[in-house]
């Protein structure tokens, strides 16, 4: 039976979310999103629920009109981004809540996901990283091999639009890029999202100015609180900065970010090309 989609709840780069009957939502994927990545998100979302990383259960594929969709429990609260937008005086509290949720997730241990170093290494020969020279790609592989392994779940798209107030606590959604490894890799990725990532598609110059300044302040507050809670050093996070750029570029390949991310990757490797 084909499920009837209700009101649009949210939209994103890879999918749009619609209400369903029975306290659920349908995440309907855009036509260009690969089928195997949908299957991976289903499996990783179910594992995240089983590990108590999120209270939101994934119910697998659901038939809907107009495309492919997966059903999830519906969230009964607001995204932390929305909480901050409604009252700028709450920004500090939101930043601390974001850090506390991330630290909570990183306290878990698992071997259920793919190693983040493997995820990054598999992206080196994909089209988004094609501009890198053979020497740069070799240096990048050596760099990834030098990074520490870990056994903590990594969300890799952890930001305040993916963390919600829910049932008296918090709920993290969108486990579509989950990996396992050193938690500093996940924090480096979140730091990148607060600093180098595109703000949101179609943002005007004024929006970029206003929201960019607010995002920067929240990012600094998040990072300060996370480091206070966990004792993680800035050096440990910096070690994963190049990997974070590889993951962002290779997984999403957003046109407005390409040159900045490629430049950051090259600067992080410091590769000297052989003389010709």
TrEMBL record:
Record bears the keyword Disulfide bond: no
Class of the enzyme per the UniProt entry, highest EC level: transferase
Keywords assigned: Transferase
EC number: 2.7.1.-
A UniProt-annotated Pfam family: APH
Gene3D superfamilies with a match to the protein in the record: 3.90.1200.10
Domain annotation Aminoglycoside phosphotransferase: ranges: 9-199
Domain of life from the UniProt record: Bacteria
Single GO term (MF): transferase activity
Keyword Magnesium: no
Name of the molecule in the record: Aminoglycoside phosphotransferase family protein
Organism the protein comes from: Microbacterium dauci
